[in-house]
Amino acid sequence: MEHLIDTIASLAKFFYSTEGLRQIIVTGGLFALVAIVFAETGLLAGFFLPGDSLLITAGIFAVGDGMGGPPLFNLWTLLGTLAVAGVVGDQVGFWLGTRAGTWVYQRPDSLLFKRRHLDASHAFYEKHGGRALIFARFVPIFRTFVPFAAGMAKMDYRAFVKFNVVGGFLWVFSMIFTGYFLGQTPLANQLHKVIVVVIFVSILPIVIQSVRGFLRSRGHQRASEPK
């Protein structure tokens, strides 16, 4: 178990480092990008993958290779391919939720599955409805578990497809175009700073929600205390 934890920690460190992202993109190319976007949105075990930072870095590399060389990708091929990968990933997550949601929910916590992630995603879906599929695209962990929660909740399939497509294209296009814009500025040579900012902005909604939940629980606890 300790070996597995160390392996996953090393992978996470690699995925969220400047050099790691560069190696993924340069070595794996478009295939690696498609696989990661699909896994993060469609497979519950992919919640730790670097969706936002990877897409922005790919957008930067659609301008140049970061070392004065030509672009590594055609911008429109990148946009279309990864948007489809994100949409298909959510479709798979929804299908898994409809087919195996109850079984997965009853499983004990493990290294790659935490029930609290699913509980938080389900509450997020219950609060925002179909729009949660769009909002969740921009929040790590939620973009992995919200489609699954929607499947568990037996959301109308046609409505799911509509929100899925809109959310998938908005997420991919906004992230890649952000990177493409940054790639034309001096910040393209300071990729490590860009990644730090992206990660901070990405996890900020989770931090805010956690703080709100903590404050609410403290308020309820104080209200229930005898006076």
Task: Characterize the structure shown.
The longest helix is centred in the last third of the chain and has 34 residues, at 191-224. The chain has helices at residues 2-15, 18-42, 51-61, 75-105, 115-128, 132-135, 142-152, 157-182, 191-224. It is globular. α2 (18-42) crosses α3 (51-61), α3 crosses α8 and α4 (75-105) packs across α7. With 227 residues, it is mainly alpha-helical. It has nine helices and no strands. The chain has one domain. The mean pLDDT is 82. It is 75% helix and 0% strand. The protein starts with a helix and ends with a helix.
Observed structural traits:
mainly alpha
Strand content: under 5%
- Mean pLDDT, to the nearest integer, reads 82
Counting DSSP E segments of at least 2 residues, the number of strands comes to 0
Which structural class do you get from the secondary structure elements? mainly alpha
- Give the N-terminus to C-terminus distance in angstroms: 47 Å
Biggest sheet, in brief? none
Domain count: 1
Output the number of helix runs.
9
Low-pLDDT residue spans:
none
List the helices and strands and how they pair.
Blueprint: H1 2-15, H2 18-42, H3 51-61, H4 75-105, H5 115-128, H6 132-135, H7 142-152, H8 157-182, H9 191-224
Helix pairs in contact: 2-3, 2-4, 3-8, 3-9, 4-7, 4-8, 5-7
